[in-house]
Amino acid sequence: MALIFIRTAIIFITLLFVMRLMGKSQIGEMQPFEFVITLLIAELACIPMADTTIPLLYGIVAIVAIFILHQVVMLLDMKCSPVKAVICGRPSLVITKDGLDEYQLKKNNLDVSDLIESMRAAGYFNLDDVYYGLYEANGSFSALPKENVTPSLAVTLIDGGKINKHNLQVCKITYSDVENFLKEQNVKLKKVLVMTVDGNGRVYFQQRGKAYKILQMKLGETW
């Protein structure tokens, strides 16, 4: 029991020292390669702590090796832009002056609902509350907000050419109401990238491959 305690203390001190040397980015929002390194270090630290048949030195050497590899990658990251793009990735501009960029969303394995969720987490509740929106290389969402934002919560009615039936019930809008609205716009359902409506009937409407429009829809009741 005492041996395990001592081995654990040695590994803990080693990890603390190595993590401090790796810099503050290890503590904050991590790049993909930093996340992988953190997982590897955690796994390498557990093995010699739990299994006394494994020499403690093996675990320490493995952790130091990971640290050296981290420093090499960081050096390449700072000195060579192409390598930085491969290792860390690039920011993806998903909201432009024309609206949502479907290609960039798909490139990052995201859909409209993922984007809307990220916007709500950042404090934006309508798709046109920002001029530009992007996902950073570390996965965080950043945006350039507009001066005046819409003072009402928008609800998604169409996402990627599919109607959200649950939200129709929440908004007390019928399927026929949406169909009639699409007929007025002379647009087929499958061609619609996104359609949201707020409590005042203000509609954010964007067809695939086209710029978004702000339209108005008659509601049975407002919220």
Would you kindly provide a written description of the structure presented here, covering whatever features stand out?
This protein has 223 residues and is α+β, with helices and mostly antiparallel strands. The chain has helices at residues 2-22, 32-50, 56-79, 81-88, 102-107, 112-121, 165-171, 175-185; strands at residues 92-96, 99-100, 130-135, 141-145, 155-159, 162-163, 192-197, 202-207, 213-216. The strands form two sheets. It has a five-stranded antiparallel β-sheet with strand order 6-5-7-8-9. A hairpin with a 5-residue loop joins strand 3 (130-135) and strand 4. Helix 1 (2-22) packs antiparallel against helix 2. The longest helix has 24 residues, at 56-79.
In short:
The chain has 223 residues and is α+β, with helices and mostly antiparallel strands. It has eight helices and nine strands.
> Strands of the largest sheet, in order across it?
6-5-7-8-9
- The general outline is elongated
Runs with pLDDT <50, length 5+?
Answer: 24-28
What's the story with the biggest beta sheet? 5 strands, antiparallel
Task: Give the number of helices.
Answer: 8
Helix proportion range: 40-55%
